[in-house]
Amino acid sequence: MPKNRDKKVRLNRTAREGGNEKPTTKSKTSMTEHIAHSGAWGLALIIIVIASWLLYRYLAPKTWKEWASAGVIQAFIIALYAEMYGFPLTIYLLVRFFGLDQANLNASLWSTLLGMGETGMMISMIFGYLIAFSGIGIFMEGWRELHRARKENRLIMHRLYGLVRHPQYTGLFIALFGEGVVHWPTIFSVALFPIIVLAYYLLARSEEHKVEEEFGAEYREYRNRVPMFIPRWGQWRTLATTRTESSNDYSPDIGKSKWERQ
């Protein structure tokens, strides 16, 4: 019996050494291999610097609330583009802890989850950019209208500000949603998005208190009539088309209070 048992042990060892037994560490091998669209840290750094400069250039934070809100967006930008071009941490965590299928790993979460490869990534990129650039357009137009109104020391209630009270923030939310949720969702971008909305909601409330102190009943009437961030049903198309109007169509009397027009 001992001889037969020793013979079986030698046969099993030979079978394993000959490759008849599959390795038990396959779940770890693919993560050491190159994942498509990752590792471009230089490009990630360049985009983070440019996006951050534009962020602070146009938001121009002054108070601590403004700096705190901009800081959350800064974290969103760093986390998003570090994963988009650097290391796909979201994919790694899903593989490591949730058993994500490793057959067709891609840095793009949509491509990996849907198994559509480059096609899935292109579809999400097109839709994401369409949403993001629409949001950027709304943000820029809202910022220009607000800047013009501040220079003239008047209450603005027309065009984009006739649809929502804070169109620059609405555009910001749309742009971040398109880029960080639709185009290239990551754990951090999806988690930070509602925090950004909350931060700018609190900031907008604080700003409205100051405007109310300056314009009084006129602003309260405007606030009761116009929603804060989300246009009423049927006004989204107007929101998108209003931003494309030429600034030459602007009339200095539109949106001014009664005493300013007299």
Question: Could you walk me through the main structural features you see in this protein, from its secondary elements to its overall organization?
Answer:
This protein has 262 residues and is mainly alpha-helical. The protein has a single domain (35-247), classed as Four Helix Bundle (Hemerythrin (Met), subunit A), CATH 1.20.120. The protein has twelve helices and no strands. The protein has helices at residues 2-17, 26-29, 41-59, 64-86, 89-98, 109-114, 117-152, 167-183, 187-215, 217-225, 236-242, 258-261. The termini are far apart.
How is this fold's topology laid out?
Elements: H1 2-17, H2 26-29, H3 41-59, H4 64-86, H5 89-98, H6 109-114, H7 117-152, H8 167-183, H9 187-215, H10 217-225, H11 236-242, H12 258-261
List the secondary-structure elements in sequence, H or E.
Answer: HHHHHHHHHHHH
Q: What radius of gyration results from the CA coordinates?
A: 27 Å
The chain-level mean pLDDT equals 78
Largest sheet: none
CATH class annotation: Mainly Alpha
Query: What count of structural domains?
Result: 1
**CATH architecture field:** Up-down Bundle
How many angstroms separate the termini?
A: 113 Å
Q: How large is the count of helical segments?
A: 12
Query: What's the helical proportion of residues?
Result: 55-70%
Low-confidence stretches: 1-33, 246-262
CATH fold-level name: Four Helix Bundle (Hemerythrin (Met), subunit A)
Tell me, briefly, the overall form. elongated
Q: Give the DSSP E fraction (strand runs of 2 or more residues).
A: under 5%
Number of strands: 0
Structural class based on helices, strands and sheet pairing? mainly alpha
